[in-house]
Amino acid sequence: MRQSELFTKTRKEAPKDEVSKNAILLTRAGFIHKELAGVYSYLPLGLRVVKNIENIIREEMNAIGGQEVLMTTLQDPEIWKKTNRWDDKVVDNWFKTKLANGNDLGIANTHEEPMTAMLTEFVSSYKDLPLYTYQFQTKFRNELRAKSGIMRVREFLMKDMYSFNRTEDEFKEFYEKCAGAYLKIFARVGLGEKTYRTVAAGGSFTTNLTDEFQTLSEAGEDIIYITDESKKMAVNKEVEDRGGEGRKSIEVGNIFPYGSKYPDAFGLQFQDEKGEKKSIFMGAYGIGLGRLMGTVVEVLSDEKGIVWPREVAPFQVHLLSLTEEAKKLADEAYQTLISHGIEVLYDDRDMRAGEKFADADLIGIPMQVIIGTKALVSKMLEVKERATGKTEELKVEDIINKLKR
Ligand code: ATP
Ligand code: MG
Prior knowledge:
The protein is an alpha+beta fold. The chain has helices at 21-28, 44-63, 77-81, 112-119, 168-188, 261-265, 289-300, 327-339, 353-363, 373-378, 396-404; strands at residues 32-36, 39-42, 67-68, 74-75, 95-98, 104-107, 131-140, 155-165, 195-201, 209-216, 222-228, 233-236, 247-259, 269-271, 277-279, 281-288, 317-321, 344-347, 367-371, 381-385, 391-394. The chain is 29% helix and 29% strand. It is elongated. The model has no long low-confidence stretch (mean pLDDT 96). Adenosine-5'-triphosphate binds next to strand 8, strand 13, strand 16 and helix 7.
């Protein structure tokens, strides 16, 4: 994409109403737009990052047998009354609305109830199980505070997976598989080093202990104690206060064992091989896409701006044409790169080189290809790695080979 055609603009000043690093950088670089407190729109660059994260998660969920669905935002209160979670005293962050006839309607904050109720139509025999459903769906939560930029918002895209198993052992096996998939996801988005599987309490969802995935960051709202560095294990302070060396962290995802609470409430059971009615073992597995994106910014950015890891970056290459004379060569390089399927943001704007450098560092695309007057003679292009600032001189073909690897 030509940057001259991108409708968003970068800005030098931090927005006055933001305190978190992720919101400041993402706003300055033109990835997001604040609509109101805790409510953000995603602009072209930001949406590309969200879609990349979504695709990574989708690949890993499909790899463990997930079937993708999309459930509705508007929800039937009757379903929630069956588990006593319509009550605002039980779930305190509901957004609710009313139909024209005055009847209540829920606005999705999670989907255990509708998912379980829906499946009663399809599951009755041991042959119908196990079953794993997931979706990318917008949740609405009336959060008390919204000071962490896109990491704690009132409207957000969540990947929520639900598992339905025949035995506790079958459930546990899947639960561990999903924990493994989560670690792959967090590694692929660049947070592997700093993310810990953390024992935690289950909040309003379950009285069992659950597992959270916590990424170390000063911007975090949680505190964890690392229990095994080599295995990346930790425990949340709310479960076990060990005092002393707690570390601040961000909950990027979590997995819950539910037992049979939700399936039994809806009569979602199955007949085993002998024809006996049995309860189903259920689990739920969440990741907030915006929170994950915000965490990447919090953890990996530097004083110049954002540093996107390769798999989540909005483009693979940021091509900068520095001078009027360099434009022809830059145009050619742009055409060659995109004809090889490489995603390129091409800074073809009429601007000083210094401003282009600053913008490229702020936007954070991992590879910058810089074409100035020098390249006209040598036909070698300057390639700069955003994360390290290291540069090398390469031919276009070498750049293509490097990216295809
Ligand atoms: P928290 O303790 O941070 O409020 P939660 O326990 O309410 O999180 P879940 O309801 O299990 O979280 O949601 C699953 C995932 O959705 C979380 O791990 C997090 O990544 C994301 N998430 C939850 N609440 C928000 C929010 N208000 N804004 C953005 N993402 C969220
Ligand atoms: Mg919450």
